Amino acid sequence: MTAQSDQSVQAQENFQKITDLMGRGQQMMLEFWTKQHEAPPLIPDPLGIMSTWAKAWGAMLTDPTQVMEQQQRYLTDALALWQRLFTPNATPAVVKDKRFAGPAWAENPAFDFLRQSYLLTASHIMQAAQGLDGMEPAEKAKAQFLIKQFVDAMSPSNFALTNPEVINATMESGGANLIKGLEHLLGDLQTGRMKMTDEAAFEVGRNVAITPGKVVYQNRLFQLIHYAPTTETVFATPLLIFPPWINKFYILDLTAEKSFIRWAVAQGLSVFVVSWKNADESLADATIDTYVDEGMFTAIKLVREICDAPSVHTIGYCVAGSTLAAALAVLAARGEADQVASATFFTAQTDFSDAGELTLFIDDASLDTVQKMTGDKPVLDGRYMATTFNLLRSNDLIWNYVVNNYMLGKDYFPFDLLYWNSDATNVPARWHRQYLEQMYRDNLLAKPGGMTVCGTPVDLSKVTTPSYIQAGKEDHIAPARSAFKLTKAFSGETRFVLAGSGHIAGVVNPPSANKYQHWTNDNNATTLEAFTAGATETKGSWWPNWLAWLTPRSGDQVPARVPGQGAYAAIEDSPGGYVKERI
After folding, report:
1. Helix (H, G, I), strand (E, B), or coil: what is residue 183?
2. Catalytic annotation on 318?
């Protein structure tokens, strides 16, 4: 048999495989629509998208002169692009967009023109979006976000027939890439989420979340993990970490090299972590009172008893940091503030007036959608929140995987951070709505007495607990400008540190990695801009800076505490059972 006939047979086999996979996909769609028919009606105009589009279109038409001027600028730039591309010996344009970084985009003039004309058109569309002056600021911001989502989705890199890398891969493999891509797609449809990494390469407790310790307490809300010491003596004041319950705690305990928890233990700290339960029916009644009283106050009491310590150091990450601030205010009002020796906030907010793009999802239409999605359900599916976060960086966290997974059919690359990102958690529906409405929409936490927690009006200005506040320079979830406001929310001593990178990499930046940088400023800056203007840049991790701030507040050295010895016996080995529960 000749090589040509071999290729023909292989092509026929690949075509049959594609046909079979498409048939499976059609069957799955039929089953999906059958379930939809049996389920409650779909939510009309979820998130208010269509109404926002209509308002944006109306705002644009109120100034036809501006529309015509924008069109003229576009035509002028498009003509210049055409002339530049087809001018002999013209200097090739430098395209920095990583979606078009592959050499195939530049080697063929047609695809080079396609990418450059798309980028030109996208730029003009976004410029036009900036001119929607007839809309309210919040509506305008939402319209700009939706327009950007549309523009990003229409990139020629996202379509097989307009992506030269996909075309080349298809020709070279005889369509094998499309077969594998369809298999990936069908697998994701079955699980209800987009797979980003080789999930079989990781297992919680085997190669992530592996710092040794014991679960020494559990209730319906959390398990308390006490980590085994690696030093003969430890500081008298223990450290209690509250991770966000919208994610799992092991973002702070990935591989041994990246683990903040393992590093903190090695510095001679008695480290405890709250591992929140993946919410189910047992937490249907949960509110902020539940997470403060049954969660934070209970954990603080336990750690103080286990370590025979009058107070604890605390860390609150993201939403847990917002809640920790409220808890500190309650303790202050009760005259019990001395239970907490210090509070550290990782990328947390208490004033949500500058909370970034997530505020686009807390208007009335969006909150109404969340209400209808949950209805009388006890929990909000964590995959909904994961998709929301991914939309904030759709090119990196959605379209990148559409191209690589579904069209190029690439094998999944094992990456611990993406494994954690895909390990979503359900949250109590009632508490989630309360959080969005009271903190994000109404900004009540920033208003003295605006919120009542555990029967106590919350006034953050009464908090005198020494606080270390960390923010990420490129954080798109808790913007640095918003996190900086914590420095003015409290009455006690505060130290602000601005870390390089964003919401995750800005926090998970061990000294051994020697990545990014951080900025400090010992002057009493009143704004983030003033802080940055007078800041000192230091290469590498901010963790040693935090340790230098913490240890003078940590008391004397005492014999290391062994988990499970004392009043609270070990229930199971870390990382415990709660963190292993998956959606």
Report:
1. helix
2. yes
**Catalytic residue (choose from 129, 306, 309, 318):** 318
Continuous H helices in 1-63: 3-38, 49-61
Give start and end residues of each alpha helix (H) in 39-158: 49-61, 64-85, 104-107, 109-130, 137-153
Among 431, 292, 446, CA closest to 370:
431
Burial of 525 (0-12, 13-18, 19+ CB in 10 A): middle
Tens of pLDDT along 227-263? 999 999 999 999 999 999 999 999 999 999 999 999 9
SS3 at position 225: strand
| 213-381+426-510+544-580 is classed CATH 3.30.565.10 | no
User: Given this model, what pLDDT does residue 28 score?
Assistant: 45
d(CA 60, CA 130): 10
CB 288 within 8 A of CB 434: yes
Report the predicted TM-score, pTM, of the whole model to 2 decimal places.
0.88
Quick one: which H or E segment has residue 344? strand 340-346
Determine contact, residues 306/271, Cβ cutoff 8 Å.
no
Contact 14, 179 (CB under 8 A): yes
Query: What's the token pair of residue 311?
Result: 């107070």
d(CA 435, CA 414): 34
Residues of the chain with pLDDT under 70: 1-48, 90-92
Do residues 471 and 478 make contact, with C-beta atoms less than 8 angstroms apart? yes
Residues with Cβ within 8 Å of residue 188, at least 6 apart in sequence: 194, 195, 405
- The CA distance from 7 to 464, in Å, is 75
Q: Extract the tokens encoding 518.
A: 């951080």
- Pick from 513, 506, 518: nearest CA to 548: 518
d(CA 367, CA 47): 8
Q: Where are the domains of the chain?
A: 43-174, 213-381+426-510+544-580
Please name the residues in contact with 533: beta carbons below 8 A apart, sequence gap of 6 or more.
none
With H, G, I as helix, E, B as strand and everything else as coil, classify residue 208: strand
**Numbers of helices and strands, H then E, in the chain:** 22, 17
